[in-house]
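Q&A log
Question type: sequence-to-structure
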Amino acid sequence: MVNESLLEYDFDSGVNGITKKLYDVDEYDYGWDRWIQDSMQTGYVERPSQNGPLRYDFHLQVKRATGAAGLEALLPTEVLAPNTGFIYPGGDNETSLNYGGNLEIAPPHTSVDGHYPFGRIIVGGGDGGTLEGTTYEDHMALGQRNWLDAQGVQGPSIEVSSEWLAVGHIDEIFLFIPDYRPESTRPWKVIIASPTMAWEGLTDLYSQNYGNAKIFNGRDQQTTVTNILTDAELFYYNQAAQARIDSIRFELQDALGLSDADFIELPVLYEPLWYGGYDFAVAYNPGVQNLIVADNVLFVPDPEGPEIGGVGLWKTQIENKLEPLGLEIHFVDVYESYHVMMGEAHCGSNFQRDGFATSWWEH
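Response status: OK
Response body:
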């Protein structure tokens, strides 16, 4: 049974002070490979016994050929132990769509397809091509996808479009977070990137004569509100990104039985990364939906947006959306350590979480 979670790569001192236990992965042991979310997924195995249900940690090593120098060696070198195991299903193709950031578990829910008391596996892939309309197709390795589906209780897996992204992971688009409000009919939400929200916020600042407000202040990529809003290519590219994200949202609604109220939009812009003649998309500002959930605490990538009088536009939008859910927000600096390498906070972390209270065979 795959259950989103395990280790955490220490990329920000703020994370250390709040998490209950922190397992440090030595960067020098694994060739500076920092993508611990992408190298594995955590869960557990459970079976009946004379003394009641017996469960132990069990991890999925994804098909990611980093070799012995990278985090591919973490599970057999450090994690494997009595009552702690791992599986490597492999597969038929090497693609970044195999990695852990492209594998999420929707929380328990009921939809037209049935009841999923342990949630349902979601992966990215597809044949929808790039945002500029170039034909392109990519999918998770079949062997790995088949292994996930064979787990039964969290399958069959759902595939949503991620082939248009440079890295190709669904955590570049959306994640699931808890909703602690007592009046909520569903104890979780889907946070999803919204180029429209990010762009409209900048437009509003410009209308208030804040066009010179700095974005990515102090970074090599520093720019202004005006520079972004006058970039016609960036504008149309984000319109295409929003259209693709909307289609993913509709698919999640149908598959998981969700409504518009189950989604929370967060400000994220995208830009093209041209590679091999394809315009693959990457987050222009740090992708804030690529965050870490630690119970009621969220470690959110600092969006590096414009600030007026010490108040950040995109930060305020995020706080206004997430704090009412009973969540504590901590913005973390991931710009140099992850963002410029096409990743964010979720990509560089992994958690071990409590298992389900009910055993799988009771369903």
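Response note: Helices lie at 13-16, 36-39, 74-79, 142-150, 195-207, 225-229, 232-256, 313-322.
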